[in-house]
Amino acid sequence: MKGGKGKVTVKTQRFGEIRVETGKIITMRSGILGFEHLVRYVLLVQDEKIPLRWLQSLDDPSVAFVVVDPLLVQPGYQPELDDADCESLGITSGEDAAMLVVVTIRSRPFSMSANLRAPVIINAVKRTASQFILRDPAYPIHHDCTDRGRWGLDGTSGAAAFSSISSASMAGDDDQLKPCR
Questions:
Q1: Model confidence at 5, in pLDDT bands (50, 70, 90)?
Q2: Most CB atoms within 10 A, among 32, 154, 160, 176?
Q3: pTM higher than 0.85 for the full model?
Q4: Residue 103, class by beta-carbon neighbours within 10 Å (0-12 exposed, 13-18 middle, 19+ buried)?
Q5: pLDDT value of position 81
């Protein structure tokens, strides 16, 4: 990883070389389950029309998670977090927080599921985050979201959406691959 003038350049396995403003780096307070040693990430957008995003590790260029706003796959999703959880990230207002869930995509047969049991909560102001494991069994680890007309994709199936997000050529193209705000 190279740096300079408030930006770092990372050569990722999936996206090639990307430039990231240091102010867009998200630091995980407690890492993603199984990847606790990776602490620096950036949230990437490939196509504004598709709600899937990439949470790209800056510590290991081969690691990137597909993530989505949980309200797109489970309307009414409102997990209860302890006050201590919010305090650990310095969240004092709901306006400071963003929530994502990790999406698992399988190709044969095609399926997509979202892990609603372990949301990633981000303090959008301080750019800190943690993945929290919920105790509520109402939120499954594998919530099916294979066919998501509700994703605002005009009836497009999850397979078509993923095909679009995974097949675009993005290496080094700052106009196609953008860090989220």
A1: low
A2: 32
A3: no
A4: buried
A5: 83
Question: DSSP label at 60?
Answer: -
Sheet strand arrangement including 7-12: 2-4, 7-12, 16-21
User: CA-to-CA distance for 28 and 152, rounded, in angstroms?
Assistant: 30
CA angle, residues 80, 84, 87, in degrees to nearest 5? 105
Tokens 């193209």 locate to 173
Domains, the chain, ordered by start = 7-168 (2.30.290.10)
Query: Hey, how many other C-beta atoms are within 10 angstroms of the C-beta on 159?
Result: 16
What pLDDT, in 10s, does the model give residues 55-81? 999 999 999 999 999 999 999 999 988
Cα distances (Å, whole numbers) of residue 132 to 9, 15, 146? 29, 27, 24
Two structure tokens written together for 129: 């985050």
Is the model's pLDDT at 11 over the cut of 60?
yes
pLDDT, tens only, 76-85: 999 988 888 8
